[in-house]
Amino acid sequence: MPSLGADMEAGKLVEWTVQPGDQVSRGDVVAVVETQKGAIEIEIFESGTVHELIAELGAELPVGAPLAVILAEGEAPPAEAPAAPESVQEDMTAQSPAEDITAPPPTPDIAPHAGAGPAASPAARVRAHELGLDLSAIRGSGPGGVIVLADVEVAAPGPARPQARTGGTGSAIDEMRKAIAAAMTRSKQSIPHFYLSETIDVQPAMDYLAALNADRPPPERVLLGALFVRAATRAAAKIKVMNGHFTDGAFRPADRVNPGIAVALRGGGLVAPALMDAQDMTLDQTMSGMRDLVTRARAGRLRSSEMTQGTITISSLGETGAEAMTGVIFPPQVALVGIGAPHRRPWVVGDAVVPRHVVTLTLSADHRVSDGRQVARFISEFETLMSEPEAL
Amino acid sequence: MTDFRAAYLEELTNIAPDIDPDTVGDDEHIQDDLELDSMDVLNLVMALHKRFGVDIPEADYPRIATVALATRYLESHVAS
């Protein structure tokens, strides 16, 4: 059971997406784990053959508990392990490693979802969990028998929502609130925060987007938030002391920028999944990556890497709302970029006072790692980038 | 004739499944009252674009911001 966040203690295994005999490569999704922050797809961190699934579906397991045994190519199964299922006991595991290496790799002939628990939509999965229903007891009406939300609602006993909300361990929202409280308390107790703010003119950026989007159909339009993420990503790539993790008493700068995008969930709660390798993305790629992240965050279908490999957090209040926010750093990161909603204000341009849209940028930084001068450089870089949006 | 009101509500609740379509007032604002963010609004515009082929420019977003406004907008902009 991997740790999917600084304060995760346990997770519940809800789905296997592989079975014994399957070949897996680093990064493949092998299981789904229910956490306080919703259902997370677990990616494998090494390549090999699934030898045995140890953990049982539905089991609540502490971080560090073994879920499965993966054998690297040529590796013999552990002697003390219980007998593997028939399908993998054939030659590939019984032979010595030397012979294995020359043998052709077994062909994965198993459909991705076969035998790995019932196929269900994310919404159905979340709702079934809320209601305490076992998905395997529900008949699916979707394509190929997939369980969809409506099937879960039909299977729900009576007006079940209030009952589920008050019973047992509390609702998913309560659990998420606890997770946020734990992470933020730890952050405030262990990270000596300091803050720098600057109000910057975003009129050029807004004018640029208005012109860009005017010629584009809805699926290709770009939001101001994507420009903010581009600018913050490029500033973080340059000011390396803002981008990385503080672990085991030392700061480890990251060589790539995976900005965590704070996403408010409807009904309450917040997650900040990482947009992986954002430093290599164009503006359009950034926008589509953000749209995908937000969609999956709301559906409760994020990946383990996205939950753990963020290198800096970007929290934008959107296009309406308060003008500034001073955020709490998400450990083990060392900085958070807080961006208020654009407000129209009198602004000095040249020698004239003109109405302009401005935003207030507030950097929360970790004094164990950086000082005001470096944070000021980040802000200055961000401001310069936003003044030339066509180059983002 | 297409029921634009029902179609709009359907796309709205696809984006925000926690909203009960029966409780949405005709003049409730999707951002101020129903708490859609800018990404949700763009997804709603995309959904309406896909469903009706209507290319709602950004300047027209205020004209689809409530059920009543959107119904009128779609009635006049979607080719029958």
UniProtKB/TrEMBL annotation, chain B:
Gene3D superfamilies: ACP-like. One of its GO terms (molecular function) is acyl carrier activity. Keywords: Phosphopantetheine, Phosphoprotein. The keyword Phosphoprotein applies. InterPro entries: ACP (IPR003231), ACP-like_sf (IPR036736), PP-bd_ACP (IPR009081). GO terms for biological process: lipid A biosynthetic process. It comes from the Bacteria. This is Phosphopantetheine-binding protein. It comes from Salibaculum griseiflavum. The lineage of its organism: Bacteria, Pseudomonadati, Pseudomonadota, Alphaproteobacteria, Rhodobacterales.
